[in-house]
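agent> step 3/5: call structure_predict on target 'GntR family transcriptional regulator' (Brachybacterium endophyticum).
agent> reason: downstream docking stage needs a structural representation; sequence fetched in step 2, passing through unchanged.
tool.input:
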Amino acid sequence: MTARSIEGEPTARTKAEQAYLRIEAMIVGEQLPPSSLISESRLMELTGFGRTPVREALQQLARARMVEVLPHRGVLIPAISVEEQLRMLELRRVLEPLAASLAARRADASDRARLSALLEELRGDVQDATAYAETLRQVHETVGRAAHNAYLVDAIAAVQGLSRRFWFAHLRDASSEIARGSALYGQGIAAVLDGDGEGAERALLALNDYLVEFTRATLDEQGRGLG
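tool.output (status=ok):
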């Protein structure tokens, strides 16, 4: 899998939205390390955008708890926490099955085209974790939009970035984990495309079970490291 634009994906993004996505990707991929402090001017250099788009992006990222803006000091990237990840998964367990169920009933032709393209991506030869993380971002955005509920889109976006970062940071066997995740996401998308709301809910609950299992396994690894 290589990162690419999915057919039908929103392309007319504002500069602030583009800056948001670039900074989010750097946080998820840990190019901006956890617990690090970075200046606004440095983020302008890294993203290629001016002060206003970067500040607007930082405001959105702060609302999603992906950064903390410290006046006169800079921008703090939050630490990675198992406890916080489990709390986010509690919320995702409610939001994502709901979004998938609504999408199964409400998706229009444009939504279905985007979802079909994403399903093809997930069923392809998946190797690159960075590209996979970007595909997942597009999956959640597209399913949320297909639910045609803007409040739900915003709520899901607020817990997605840091949750993806946790998975990325603790990834050990990339090919195995990506294959497992792709299969579960693929089942959910296929159910949405079939108009099967209950099936979509079941698939997203199974995905959440996997993510909780993955998260708790990191506690076991940390425990062995201390032993």
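agent> step 4/5: record observation. Strands lie at 37-38, 68-70, 74-76.
agent> proceeding.
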